[in-house]
Write a structure and sequence with these properties.
Layout (H helix, E strand, L loop, with lengths): L1 E3 L16 H6 L6 E4 H9 L10 E5 L3 H6 L5 E6 L2 E4 L12 E5 L8 E9 L2 E3 L7 E3 L4 E3 L5 E3 L1 H8 L5 H10 L5 H14 L5 H4 L2
Helix pairs in contact: 2-4, 2-5, 4-6
Length: 204
């Protein structure tokens, strides 16, 4: 089964979901998972800074099948190049797919986007430049409610590739609160991945 649509779909196609709901969905998984996207920035800041139209959850690509087992009979689609392709139950995503859109079977609204991150043993690897990597021990944090989230400097590196208005908002909200180590890591990673990126000067 195939379905074609613009992956920058109308926000009305998504249900706004609080990150705490992911605890119920993925509590049974034994491999790492974490809140990503704009919600990761807000979990770092400890407050909601802007509306969030969707929920992003990060996993290692190699753990995709385990994560999808937690979603049971949900509808899952691979999102790539403007095309949504149904992922048959029990199968893994294609190697060149980085995003899975998920919703309860028969549901109208997407509930969660699973982001597939590259890894090398115990290191996260930035897929746009494999020389940029981070130990998983330094990649994730946990808030008081038990939610694990992506550290802000790595989330901002992902956001730097698009810099939509909401990504700039997230940068300006989070950057003042980065410690010197996080700020330096983000600046040097941007210099390597996107040497002319405007955020670099702001991190000096």
């Amino acid at each position: 089964m195939h379905a074609v649509r613009d992956v920058s779909a109308d926000p009305a196609d998504w249900r706004s979901v609080a990150p705490q709901e992911a605890l119920a969905w993925f509590s049974a998984i034994s491999t790492p998972w974490w809140i990503a996207g704009g919600w990761a920035i807000d979990l770092f800041l400890g407050r909601t800074t802007r509306p969030h139209g969707d929920l992003d959850v990060g996993i290692r690509r190699r753990d995709a099948r385990d994560a999808l087992k937690c979603l049971g009979s949900w509808d899952v689609y691979e999102a790539k190049d403007g095309r949504l392709t149904h992922l048959r139950a029990g199968t893994g995503p294609c190697a060149d797919v980085n995003s899975l859109w998920c919703r309860p079977a028969g549901g109208k609204h997407w509930m969660v986007e699973l982001l597939l991150d590259e890894s090398d043993q115990d290191h996260w690897v930035y897929r746009r430049d494999r020389q940029i990597r981070r130990s998983f021990a330094d990649l994730l944090r946990r808030d008081d409610s038990g939610l694990t989230y992506l550290v802000p400097e790595v989330q901002l590196l992902y956001k730097s590739s698009r810099t939509r208005p909401k990504d700039d908002v997230d940068f300006f909200n989070a950057a003042p609160w980065l410690d010197s180590s996080a700020r330096n890591w983000l600046r040097e990673s941007l210099r390597r991945a996107t040497p002319l990126h405007p955020w670099i000067a702001l991190l000096e």
